[in-house]
Design a protein that fits this description.
Structural class: alpha/beta
Number of domains: 1
Order of helices and strands: HEEHEHEHEHEHH
Strand content: 5-15%
Helix content: 40-55%
Largest sheet: 2 strands, parallel
CATH topology: Rossmann fold
Number of helices: 7
Strand order of the largest sheet: 1-5
Length: 169
């Protein structure tokens, strides 16, 4: 939402409101944005090839139940009126670090290898500019509303893997 619209909304007084800027959400029934990388891990493939620029990229994510907790925190706390909050994890790991976390939780000991896009199948190439991260500072919602994740990170990753395993390819 453009910032000008956000400012109009938070300054209106007829109905108290706040704006929550959501991260990329992961977990059961999510968009399955990690599908192409989690399936080889779950199959037990020996190697997983990932695009080199993407490997070092950071993007703030949030587990679905934790994002829902942020909504509850905002709705039930009158201090949120007229405020704008970024929602998501307190630290955004690189995509390589995130996949390494998934691999560890899955018990996978294969090798994740960064390769240039041309070395990947055409369907796995991402033609985006990964030189700019999408990282949110979530300190305000944590400080002002006392928001914190309700699902331990390991469990969030395990639940995401379970869903991916159940839904398959």
């Amino acid at each position: 939402m453009p910032k000008a619209r956000e400012q109009v909304l938070v300054h209106q007084t007829d109905l108290p409101n706040c704006i929550l800027r959501f991260p990329a959400v992961l977990g059961p029934k999510d968009y399955r944005r990690f599908h192409r990388w989690l399936q080889p891990i779950l199959r037990g493939d020996v190697e997983l090839h990932i695009q080199d620029g993407w490997a070092g990229w950071r993007w703030t994510h949030g587990f679905a139940e934790d994002v829902a907790e942020a909504v509850v925190a905002a709705v039930t706390n009158s201090a949120s009126a007229g405020r704008i909050y970024n929602v998501g994890e307190s630290h955004a790991p690189t995509m390589m670090e995130r996949l390494t976390e998934f691999a560890r939780v899955a018990g996978w000991y294969g090798k994740i290898i960064e390769v240039p896009a041309p070395e990947l199948p055409e369907t796995d190439r991402m033609l985006y500019d990964f030189s700019h991260h999408i990282v949110f500072d979530t300190a305000r919602i944590r400080t002002e509303l006392g928001y914190k994740e309700v699902i331990p990170r390991e469990l969030a990753l395990a639940r995401t893997l379970e869903y991916e395993r159940a839904t398959g390819s």
